[in-house]
Protein: Branched chain amino acid:cation symporter family transporter
Amino acid sequence: MKDKNLVHTPKSEKVSKSVLFGAAFLMATSSIGPGFLTQTTVFTQQLAASFGFVILISLLLDVFVQINIWRIIAVSGLRGQEIANKVLPGLGVVLAVLIVIGGLAFNIGNVAGAGLGLNAMLGMDPVYGAVLSAAFAIFIFLFKEAGKAMDKVAQAAGGVMILLMLYVAFTTSPPVGEAIVNTFKPEQLSIFAIITIVGGSVGGYITFAGGHRLLDAGVKGIDSLPDVTKSSVMGIAVTGVMRVALFLAVLGVVSMGLAIDPANPPASVFKLAAGEVGYRMFGVIMWAAAITSVVGAAYTSVSFIRTFHPAIEKYHNWVIILFILISTLTFAIVGKPVNVLILVGALNALILPLGLGTILVAAYKKEIIGNYKHPLWLTITGGIVVVAMAVLSIMTLIEQIPLLF
Structure:
C-alpha cells in the first residue's frame, strides 16, 4: 500500500529558488522585529565582546530547532497543528490557541514598532505611521498571489536591513579581533541571554513560519528534504548576519566609550555612529523589521487555524487582514498593553518546547511520517533544546505572573 506521506516529487518539478528564499526570509524577517533590535543592543552593552559567544550558541540551537520542525512538516505534508492533533487529539488546538494569542499580542508591538520606524525616518506621528504601515501590510494580502508578494517584500526588506546594518557596523570601527576571540573563549557568560535570543529567533509562531510557507507553495515529501534543510539553514544564516552586524555596530560604540540612551538603545547606537543620517537609517531598519514581522506574525498565526473550518481556509487572506486590523486598532486606541504582553511573552516561551517536543514525538510515528527515518543527532539535539527551554520558560512564568497583580 502506497503511503500518501511519501509521495516523491518528480525531478522535473524543481523547487524554485524564489520559494526557498521566500520561506527563509519570511522566517528571518519574522524574527528580526523591534524586540530583536533592542535585545541585541542591550545584551551587547552588558556582555561586550562576549556577546559573540551568545550569538554562536544561539545560532546552533536555532538550526537544531528549525531543521527538526521544517523536515517533519515537509515529510508529513501537514501543518504544525495537524501534526500535534495526530500526536494527541486536541493538542493541535492548544498549540494553535497559544500561537494565535501570542502572535496577536506581539503584533501590537510590531505595529507600534512600524509607527516608531516611520517617526524616526520621516518625523511622522507614531500612531499615523502604524496605521499607514498596517495599510501597506494589508495591501500585500489583497493580491491573489499573496504568498509570492509576501516573499518579495520579505526578501527586499531583509536585503535593505542587512546592507544598512553592515554600513553602520563598518562606520563604528568595532574591535573585530576581540569579538572573534570572545566568540570562542568568552570572558563573560549569560545563560539568560542565550535563552532570550533563542526564544526571540525561533520562539512562538516564528519556528513554523517558513515551514508552513513551503508547504503552502507545494514543497513537501521525502525528495524535498535537501531543499527544505537548505532553506531553513538559510533563514538562520540571514538572522545571524543581521545579529552579528548589529552586535559589531553596538560594540564599536561601546568601545569608544559613548553612552547609549537606555530609553531607545538601538536608535541611540545609530545616531552615535552616523549622526542624524544614522538616526534616519535606524528608522528605515526599524520600519522594515517591524512591517515584515507584522506580515509574518499574521500569516503564520492564521495558518494555524486554517484547517479548523472550511470558511477560514477559503477566506484565509481576509482572516489575515482582520488579524492585522485588530492589532492596529488595539495599538491606536488602547496603546501597548504592557501587562498582557508580559504574560503572553512568558506563555509564548512555552510554545517552542511544546511545538518542538510534539514534532520530535511525531518523527517516530509511522502514521504521520511513514517510513521516513529521522536522524538520531537531530532528535538528541532537539530534545536538549526542549528540556532547556521548558524549564526556563516555566521559571519565567512563575516570576512574571505576580507582576500582573
Summary: The CA atoms of residues 9 and 223 lie 6 Å apart. Confidence is low (pLDDT under 50) at residues 1-13.
